[in-house]
Amino acid sequence: MAALDASPDRSSEEPAMTAPGILTLLREDAACVFDRDPAARSLVDVLTCYPGFHALVAHRVAHAAWRRGLRWPARFLSYLARAVTNIDIHPGATIGRRFFIDHGAGVVIGETAEVGDDVTLYHGVTLGGTSWTKGKRHPTLKDGVLVGAGAKILGPITVGANARVGANSVVTKSVPEGMTVVGIPGRVVRPEAQRSLSAHGIDLEHHLMPDPVGKAIACLIEHINRIEARLEARTAAEAATLPVAGATASDLRFDGIACRSCGDLCDQDVHGPAPSPRPQA
């Protein structure tokens, strides 16, 4: 019993949520799905086939019980919801209005996490802690934040309003308002002043998230293509001036060290006739 009394109790800080309040929140939660998921066809579809919404229904009730001091029933309801939906939301987590979890598999939200209004999470997101100490140890997401699939936001940090966290990013430092963060570790890549927003300020162009790794690979491919073009031009020029009679462009290779001009063979497969040794001076 002493351990239960030692647990952080926020019931005195805010009044317990009443049933009408829960119903109002759930109506908004269901309605916002249509604004953020083009696959949603009907309200029946949302109510019966969206595990993210099911987990949120359970959390709204469990959180109300948690704030009333009914800790074990709240934890058990959260446990049942996780078993059914594969979404783990601690009943102590504070979640705002019009919250949407798309797909939902593998989402984890810790006890002291705080989520603002109009926040969207994709599957595999973790709002986790970095310490075993009690007190605030999980992140705070301000209004309008979007978190891509597989992202990990760790520690008592703050993600500013309307910021975006790229898929599979690991964020351990606070993110300024309106910024995009990608990578491991997460780093700010550009402000989000010109993105397309829905009626509730939700970004619907998650597929346009900047990808610095992909951009770097594209730059390398472009550089390799330029090098190959230069080598081909040089090969043609060298073949036109080869001193050996009967030599062809296929005798000159730049992917190894074997060619008519050097007179040596490397250990790679060389097409064409074997090069003859260069006459000694």
TrEMBL record:
The keyword Lipid metabolism does not apply. Pfam families: Hexapep, SATase_N. One of its GO terms (molecular function) is serine O-acetyltransferase activity. Its EC number is 2.3.1.30. GO terms for biological process: cysteine biosynthetic process from serine. InterPro entries: Hexapep, Hexapep_transf_CS, LbH_SAT, Ser_AcTrfase_N, Ser_AcTrfase_N_sf, Ser_O-AcTrfase, Serine_acetyltransferase, Trimer_LpxA-like_sf. Pathway: Amino-acid biosynthesis; L-cysteine biosynthesis; L-cysteine from L-serine: step 1/2. This is Serine acetyltransferase. It comes from Azospirillum thermophilum.
